[in-house]
Write a structure and sequence with these properties.
Oligomer: single chain
Number of helices: 19
Structural class: mainly alpha
Number of strands: 0
Helix content: over 70%
Distance between the termini: 30 Å
Shape: elongated
């Protein structure tokens, strides 16, 4: 029977072979893009970190720098993302959302409003390692008002994580939500932010059900009636992800494909962020909603080596 030590040695040797295969793909005149695709999709994210380290030891160069000199566009962006630990990749998306004039609130929503407290803590730790500052500090500098308050509350990682709930507490918070919106003239935005950013997923799931039973209106519709803009989008994202996170991401991809403005980037971010988590479920939800698979969409809407890479990833789920 193979020991843990023997398995480790075997994996190390295999990662060395793969590292040299990447060098061969980028050596000399021209680039073997098909080899790059074949090798990068054959291994999981943890193994790719080993390949990176082996490449540096064996060649004296960073694999990312060699890739940048050989390939480009969304193909390069996707390959580099696959070589990045997912928490660091998501941290980089957040950091880029703060760059330039204005803030890309949509990207912040796609990360902070879709995660549990533990998942947010992992991204925060990665953000701190990469950028030597706290995520909450950059959020405070970039985003004010109720949306900024929601982002900072989520980024604190302070959402309750209990799996059960107290019935009286649920009834009280459901009433508080109604009183803050449909039950009054005007809207108490702070109360919506407080409840949706701090209560556990189990508590919020129960609140959503009771709200519909008590007030004959779905909370998603109530939010649409009471809010607008990025704050509306952020609150809706929290509700949708608690109900069915894969469905949220399926709808995000479909909406981006229709808008066409940033489709390739949105697609690669969802595929790579969710690849080892729930991409098969996202594909299933996409089929249910739109009658075709993600592969069908990618075949129609993308091209070149980027298309080959994403389809190769989808074939493995």
């Amino acid at each position: 029977m193979e020991t843990d030590s023997e398995r480790c040695e075997k994996e190390q040797a295999q990662m060395e072979k793969v590292a040299m295969s990447f060098e061969k793909a980028m050596k000399g005149i021209g680039t073997d893009e098909n080899r790059i695709i074949r090798e990068v999709v054959a291994y999981n994210n943890k193994q790719r970190q080993l390949i990176k380290s082996k490449y540096l030891v064996l060649t004296g160069k960073e694999i990312e720098e060699d890739l940048k000199s050989e390939i480009g566009g969304f193909f390069l962006e996707a390959v580099l993302a696959l070589f990045t630990p997912v928490d660091e990749y998501e941290a980089s998306i957040l950091h880029k959302a703060f760059e330039g004039i204005g803030t890309n609130e949509q990207k912040i929503i796609e990360i902070l409003c879709t995660k549990s407290s533990e998942e947010i803590r992992q991204v925060k730790d990665a953000y701190r390692r990469l950028y030597k500052t706290e995520l909450e500090v950059d959020l405070k500098n970039e985003e004010g008002g109720d949306l900024g308050r929601l982002f900072r509350s989520l980024a604190s990682g302070g959402r309750r994580e209990n799996h059960g709930y107290d019935k009286d507490f649920i009834e009280k918070e459901t009433q508080n939500l109604y009183d803050a919106g449909e039950g009054k003239t005007g809207t108490d935005e702070k109360e919506f932010v407080r409840i949706l950013s701090s209560r556990s997923f189990a508590e919020l799931s129960a609140i959503f059900v009771l709200y519909k039973e008590s007030f004959e209106n779905d909370l998603e519709q109530a939010i649409k009636d009471e809010f607008s803009g990025d704050l509306c989008e952020a609150l809706l994202t929290i509700v949708k992800c608690i109900r069915n996170r894969p469905k949220y991401f399926a709808e995000l991809i479909a909406r981006s494909s229709q808008e066409k403005k940033n489709f390739e980037q949105d697609l690669l971010q969802v595929v790579i962020r969710r690849y080892e988590i729930d991409l098969p479920e996202i594909n299933d939800e996409f089929k249910k909603l739109y009658g075709r698979s993600l592969t069908d969409l990618v075949n129609k809407e993308t091209n070149g080596d980027f298309k080959k890479l994403i389809i190769s990833l989808l074939k493995k789920i």
